[in-house]
Description:
By secondary structure, this protein is mostly helical. Helix content is about 35%, strand content about 0%. The chain has helices at about 20-25, 35-55, 65-75. α2 (about 35-55) crosses α3 (about 65-75). The longest helix is centred in the middle third of the chain and has 19 residues, at about 35-55. The protein is globular and about 40 Å long. The two termini are about 20 Å apart.
Amino acid sequence: DELRERDLGKLVGGPKTHATEWYYTSNDGEGVESCEELAERMAKALKKIDKLRREGLVLVVGHGVSGFYLQQVAKGHKMIDEFDPPSQLGNADVVRVHYKK
């Protein structure tokens, strides 16, 4: 459940109406999940993934914005202002993440 895409509130199901970076960085309201809430959710997901990882290799399949946040949390970034600049993953991109506890 934690790996679902960022909740875009009223924008869900509609056309893309903002520049790509907005979807990664905006806290503009309108029911959009805040960046901080998304980072907390990805931290929870990472804990679950880490438990599974102890049993072997884990493949995580997710979405663009939430995947970016998962990567940032895995790198040990705790605050949004510590995150790398937003970068959009392509469809079916493979990213190897090294978890930094």
